[in-house]
User: Fold these one by one.
Assistant:
Number 1:
Amino acid sequence: MKCRKNKYSKDPIKKLVHFLKVRLNTVGVKISYSAMLLFYAYNRSETPRWAKNIILGSLAYLLSPVDAIPDLTPLLGFTDDIGVLSFGLVTIACYINEDVRAAAKNKVMSLYKNVDEEDLLEVDAQL
């Protein structure tokens, strides 16, 4: 039986670039899905004012150019954003229902091609 070679096996730089591309895409999907969950939870009439304030603060921090760790810092720049989004999601998790999840999932699917459902389920599992 002949062993198939990976197309990146001979060039370690291409292998690294491919790995980073896949990982950054996964992180982008998770951040986008988290932000969409917050956005659609904010739009629910059942979401109380205090929860909407947490959602606004979390999304504002994500979009703000001023961060605790600058987003331009390689690989570490978005860790504070992910932490703030996670805090916001866990705090208002009881206001994220199946309608919110479905709307967020559909939006993320329209923004990215080849979304792995497991990435979305990982975010949902933390709620």
Number 2:
Amino acid sequence: MHRSNSREAGSPTNRVTEHLRESYDAAAECVADHPASSIMAVFGVGFGLGLLLGHALAESPREERHSLAAFGRQMLEAMREHMPSSLARRLPA
């Protein structure tokens, strides 16, 4: 019985899998050798990414805020058109 080409020892899939396994083992060994430094490095990367993401989300352009407000007004107008007048009067102007 013959194996398929993707399962042969020199196949690209096996080479990539072996490379990933070696990289994982090297990283695991580094973390085992330097646990405190590893924790601080991961914390620093996570904190930095959190700051960047928070800044990007907090600094929305002014036009974007105005377009969201306009969209909200359009939604309220559409709801007013399709609901009883007794309820529509209670929606904000």
Number 3:
Amino acid sequence: MADVNSSSEDDDGNGEWVFYRDRPHWKDVQPIPQDDGPHPVVQIAYSDKCKQLNVRFLCICLKETWDYGRRLRALVLVSLQSV
């Protein structure tokens, strides 16, 4: 069974993670930064990988329509959160 947390473009061939900003078919998803407000109660030190997933997931969630492609993209991002 294929690993749902991995794809052919998860790494660059050398085992290095490829950020979503560098993946061609994610170029149309403009990241929306997380806004914790002017005085966040707790500042969380997210990893760069986690930040990349979160800002794109937020963009997908804020779109008006949820077609099959969007649901699939959201599922991919959510499944990678546990990695």
